[in-house]
Amino acid sequence: MTQREFNHLLNSLSSLSHEQTRQLRRELNSKLATTVTEPAAADEALQQRLVEAGLLSELKPPIRDLSAYRNRKAVPIQAEPLSETVIRERR
């Protein structure tokens, strides 16, 4: 689909009835759900193979509650930047 066709499609959305809008939403949600679950299934299969190969000891469930991560604060470092320390120690 060209960008022009896509823009025409977007402009046509305002003329849809309420029922047509709901039908379009169902179709889009269905297509997006299929797209999202395929990579998730592939990721789970990869993790399972890593466990079987002994590279992972366990499969942890994905983090669902991100509230603990939203208000993180950076830890101030008094010395040189950590990246410089790593480079210096690897030499």
Question: Could you name the key traits of this structure?
Answer:
91 residues, mainly alpha, 4 helices
Provide a descriptive summary of the structure in words.
By secondary structure, this protein is an all-alpha fold. The protein has a domain at 1-57. It contains four helices and no strands. The longest helix is centred in the middle third of the chain and has 35 residues, at 18-52. The protein is elongated, with a radius of gyration of 24 Å.
Shape: elongated
**Strand percentage:** under 5%
Major sheet summary line:
none
Q: What percent of the residues sit in helical stretches (DSSP H or I)?
A: 55-70%
Through-space gap between termini: 53 Å
Task: Describe the SSE topology.
Elements lengths: L2 H10 L5 H35 L14 H4 L11 H9 L1
In short:
The chain is mainly alpha-helical and 91 residues long.
